Amino acid sequence: MLADDPRTRLIETALDLFGQYSFDGVSTRMLAERAEVNLAAIKYYFGSKEGLYLAVAEQIVQHVGQFLGPRMAKVQESLDGDELTKEESFNLLCELLEFFITRLLALPETGKWLKIIFREQLCPTQAFDILFDGFMRPLDQVLFGLVARIVGRNEDDLEVRLRVFSIMGQIQVFNVSPSSIKRTLNWDQYNPDNLEAIRCVIMDNLNGIFSMSRNGVCSAQTR
Amino acid sequence: MLADDPRTRLIETALDLFGQYSFDGVSTRMLAERAEVNLAAIKYYFGSKEGLYLAVAEQIVQHVGQFLGPRMAKVQESLDGDELTKEESFNLLCELLEFFITRLLALPETGKWLKIIFREQLCPTQAFDILFDGFMRPLDQVLFGLVARIVGRNEDDLEVRLRVFSIMGQIQVFNVSPSSIKRTLNWDQYNPDNLEAIRCVIMDNLNGIFSMSRNGVCSAQTR
DNA sequence: GTCTATAGTCGGATAGAC
DNA sequence: GTCTATCCGACTATAGAC
Predict the structure, then answer these.
(1) B1-47 maps to CATH 1.10.10.60
(2) Nearest CA to A150 among A215, A80, A204, A76?
(3) A213 vs A150: CA distance, rounded Å
(4) Given A123, A163, A205, which is nearest B166 (Cβ)?
(5) Helix, strand, coil: what percent of chain B each, to 5?
(6) A39-93, pLDDT tens digit by residue?
(7) Nucleic strand C near CB of residue B29 (< 7 Å)
(8) Is the C-beta of residue A198 closer than 7 Å to nucleic acid chain C?
(9) What is the full DSSP assignment across A81-149?
(10) Which residues of chain B are within 8 Å of residue A126 when distances are taken between CB atoms?
(11) Residues of chain A contacting B176 with CB distance shorter than 8 Å
(12) Any idea where the domains of chain B sit in the sequence?
């Protein structure tokens, strides 16, 4: 479970603990104990508790990069190649969002990141810059590009950007409000059946949202 | 600015501070100083720091109740009266969501609640029960009722509920990811122009999402 | 590089005067 | 009810041995 070198052990433990509790909710003693390193190792490797937290942010960027990198690169390539039709853009967008739903929501590891990310959204620290530049901005750029082609507008058009945010909100809500959703639906956790139901609804919404922009063609499977 | 009695002063100060920082990020000394009460008053009135935090949750429920109560009651009345058409239900839903956008996002005070609420979603404590029973469940019930009528299904239908969550997610994202949205759009804060743009996009999405369910009639103004 | 030991600070809670 | 004074545990950071 725990990595060999103390540095990695500390980062991985910190990812868990800072995610579960917040920065202030975790003590350096707790971190050292769980990571099975000496308390002084935090100062040695990271300078301070804050330094460790920033290292965790960079770790998140790396993880997300491994996770999304290949997919984003593929889409970016299609965008650069130009001459994507509305239909092709729509299908690429659907694939990307399906990936978020079936993977991001499913993996328990991603829950760790996501809590840290959303806390940084609510109360940004220095770590937010790392996260934003590391993967938020690039991801948004790809989504802007796809939606811009679907609706036939420019990538920096306000409507395009708001459309992207609102669409991502439909998925994020399942990460951000898990407690009330799970309580209301009597779900203890997300499983393949749950995720399939969520996927269907989101895909159906997407079809509706862009039905005017495309030519009435509904290619995404909604059930 | 500060209320007369120490009890109220403490609750209002705590609402601010627990919202801005988290529970762990705020000390009792900070609370007492800002509320201009003695440190011992926290124990006297609330028993402990946790007790004060729970009192804050109840305060949030009260505030939200004053805010949403009349509107929810009106809609609930329509639902109970029965024989709402799809079109009427859709219009009631639009009105409710427009209210969330133009009011909830606009008021700086609501930002205080919202941070506490979302932190409780991510890491529920005893306070979550208060919030959930206090207004989340009732609000969801109303939304389930409206959407159920729009799509012609039962209120406890899974698809209906997921549809409601996904729709609310479109709005919540502007509360939950304010940092990246504001940074991307170069917005320093939400103002009437911003909110109008958001409202248009959400209403347009809503029209699309429910375009199959209703009879092709688009009554909501999207611009 | 890794550890122990501890300095120095700040946390929540509370006893007891008024 | 309000306040001062204080307890005592927990915190981060760090000095210095090995």
Answers:
(1) yes
(2) A215
(3) 7
(4) A205
(5) 75, 0, 25
(6) 999 999 999 999 999 999 999 999 999 989 999 999 999 999 878 999 999 999 9
(7) yes
(8) no
(9) H----HHHHHHHHHHHHHHIIIIITT-HHHHHHHHHHHHHHHS--HHHHHHIIIIIHHHHHHHHHHHHH
(10) none
(11) 118, 121-122, 169, 172, 176
(12) 1-47, 61-220
- Where do we find the tokens 């919540």? B172
What positions of strand D are covered by protein, i.e. any atom < 7 Å from a CB?
1-6, 10-16
A162: contact with B, CB 8 A cutoff: yes
Structure tokens at B8: 């109220």
- Cβ atoms of A176 and B174 closer than 8 Å: no
Cβ B22 to strand C below 7 Å: no
Distance of alpha carbon A85 from alpha carbon A73, whole angstroms:
18
Nearest-Cα distance to chain A for B4, in Å, is 30
DSSP A34-77: HHTS-THHHHHHHSSHHHHHHHHHHHHHHHHHHHHHHHHHHHHH
Contacts of A201 in chain B (CB under 8 A): 159, 162-163, 166
Distance A119 CA to D2 C1' (A): 38
Q: Minimal Cα distance from B193: which residue of A?
A: A158
Amino acid residing at B161: R
Q: What is the predicted pLDDT for the residue at A1?
A: 73
Task: Look at residues B19, B155, B148, B78 and name the one whose alpha carbon lies nearest to residue A185.
Answer: B155
User: What is the pTM assigned to this prediction?
Assistant: 0.94
CATH classification for the domain delimited by A61-220, as one of 3.40.640.10, 1.10.10.10, 1.10.443.10, 1.10.357.10: 1.10.357.10
Cα B223 to Cα B147: distance, rounded to the nearest angstrom: 23
Residue of B nearest to A21 (CA): B123
Interacting residues of B26 by C-beta distance below 8 A, sequence separation 6+: B14, B17, B18
Give per-residue pLDDT as tens, A176-217: 999 999 999 999 999 999 999 999 999 999 999 999 776 544
* Per-residue model confidence as pLDDT tens digits over B123-167: 999 999 999 999 999 999 999 999 999 999 999 999 999 999 999
